[in-house]
Amino acid sequence: MSVLDAQIADLSTRYPGVEAARLASGTTMITVPGVRLPNGWSKDRTAIRFLVPPAYPYAALDCFWADEDLRLAGNRVPANSSADNPIPEVGAKGLWFSWHLAQSWNPNRDSLSTWMNSVNDRLRRLQ
């Protein structure tokens, strides 16, 4: 079992229903359904999608997408996000978050689960 497959299995224990789709470029799109959101969002749950590059875990994860209709309370668009940035190679739309951890990513320590912790940290920031 590859490192990526093992980490997908681990992520699936935290988030049942995780899907992994291998794309033509060797990138893998991960979909995490039903991620709970704190109060202050327009919904109580969203799907999260992110791309895992072929050089993972040595290449850091970068950016993620939530449901296209997700907004902050009052129908506000979150900071550093856009609904006009489709998922590369897939074309699916979503609310794209510009979210980067490249400087702090450590392939010996970090995993898909630590990335989801980071995504959840971003979603707790109601901005």
How would you sum up this structure, described in words?
The chain is an alpha+beta fold and 127 residues long. 20% of the residues lie in helices and 27% in strands. The chain has a single domain (3-124), classed as Ubiquitin Conjugating Enzyme, CATH 3.10.110. The strands form 2 sheets. A 3-stranded antiparallel β-sheet has the order 1-2-3, with no helix packed on it. Strands 4-6-5 form a 3-stranded antiparallel β-sheet, with no helix packed on it.
Could you give the topology of this structure?
Blueprint (H helix, E strand, L loop, with lengths): L2 H12 L4 E4 L5 E9 L8 E8 L9 E5 L14 E2 L12 E6 L11 H13 L3
Antiparallel strand pairs: 1-2, 2-3, 4-6, 5-6
Task: Name the features.
Ubiquitin Conjugating Enzyme; alpha+beta; 2 helices; 3-stranded antiparallel β-sheet; 127 residues; globular; single chain
Offer a quick outline of the entry.
This protein is an alpha+beta fold and 127 residues long.
How much of the sequence lies in strands comes to 25-35%
- The count of domains is 1
Q: What's the mean pLDDT score?
A: 94
Structural class by secondary-structure content? alpha+beta
Identify the CATH class: Alpha Beta
The second-level CATH architecture is Roll
Query: How much helix, percentage-wise, in residues?
Result: 10-25%
* Sequence of strands across the biggest β-sheet: 1-2-3
What ranges have pLDDT less than 50 throughout 5 or more consecutive residues? none
Order of helices and strands, N to C? HEEEEEEH
Oligomer: single chain
**Number of DSSP helical runs:** 2
